[in-house]
Write a structure and sequence with these properties.
The structure is a homodimer of 202-residue chains.
Chain A lengths: L2 H20 L6 H6 L5 H7 L3 H21 L6 H13 L8 H13 L5 H27 L9 H22 L5 H16 L1 H5 L2
Helix pairs in contact in A: 1-6, 4-5, 4-7, 5-7, 5-9, 6-8, 7-8, 8-9
């Protein structure tokens, strides 16, 4: 890893920490610098503004998310979809409290109606993730594992908004959210909808 | 309708207008009074505080929502589920811009992690709506229309969070949200998962 990459990585990690600790509304360059071991000037050297830094942070989150779901590639499509549901609903294994992170994420998303640049980036990330889900569905269909009659894009939109909606309700409702029931239902959905061909045929 | 009911109804309507116009963050008793034809003192006569009024408003929204979905009762379970998805994702026929209303709703929900009373009320409403969905699924099962093997509570959690998650993404992403695809996929979900017994089944 080039030195440049390693300081960017450290800035991303400090941003993650600051966001989890203070929430989106209270996030400042100073609060990020407070979580950063090296000089604050290094942050300003790499990023002109908080908006720049946040845009880079969201790209970084997206790449990590895709890596966590797909691993080294060649995985079982069912496992990939289950892992994605688990990461989004329960949380990834990244050393942060998933509640804090999901709360910060909701705070950021709730700003999108008032911030065009943010909205455009969220829309690009959303599209990328829906494409990833649709690709996993297509892969399962090509392997003959998944029912051919499923529309990959429509399934992807439903799957993504269902697991993201569950994450959002986990933040909004706390323990009252039925996240376990949804995880079970998502599993049913994968098994019954996608693997339907295995049991019933066409 | 008793006079008392009619002024409460008018206060609810003024609250709806103020919320759509200003968003949750800028909602004040004065902004509600500005949308209210009668004396502001009437608002204070009925509600001690903004929190009181908002609690009553959320009960009012919930009752309206249940009425819109179930109509006069005895409806077809498939139609009820489709209507619920349509109201949540596209918007109800209540004379307000659904985008404004959904944006205000997201602003309100995003406050829940910081406001215990609000969170408890949202959790109660969430439970009530999931129970409604589960009841509709049970009704379909009793009529022999729906697959008996579907767990009504798990389906309810998935269905609710999927359509609410779609509403939230509609607010966050604007036109980039794939709401049409989700409506089609929700329909597939109802048809394939719940009505599965009709085609294949035992």
């Amino acid at each position: 890893m080039a030195p440049d990459d390693s300081s960017k990585e450290a800035i991303m990690s400090a941003t993650f920490d600051a966001l989890c600790e203070r929430g989106y509304a209270n996030l400042t360059m100073q609060s990020i610098a407070d979580e950063f071991d090296k000089s604050k000037s290094l942050i300003h050297y790499h990023y002109d503004s908080k908006d720049d830094l946040l845009a880079a942070f969201m790209d970084h989150l997206l790449e990590n998310f895709v890596d966590m779901v797909t691993g080294c590639g060649g995985q079982d499509p069912v496992d990939e979809l289950r892992r994605m549901a688990e990461i989004v609903i329960v949380g990834g294994d990244d050393g942060h409290d998933p509640n804090d992170f999901h709360t910060a994420l909701l705070g950021l998303r709730a700003q999108a109606p008032y911030d065009e640049q943010l909205r455009e980036q969220l829309a690009r990330n959303d599209e990328r993730i829906r494409e990833l889900i649709a690709d996993i569905v297509r892969e399962g269909q090509e392997r003959g594992q998944f029912d051919e009659s499923v529309d990959p894009e429509a399934f992807a939109a439903l799957f993504r908004y269902a697991i993201e909606g569950t994450q959002v309700h986990g933040v909004i409702l706390g323990d009252a959210a039925q996240t376990d029931e949804v995880l079970a239902a998502v599993d049913d959905l994968i098994v019954d909808r996608l693997l339907a061909g295995e049991e019933g045929g066409e």
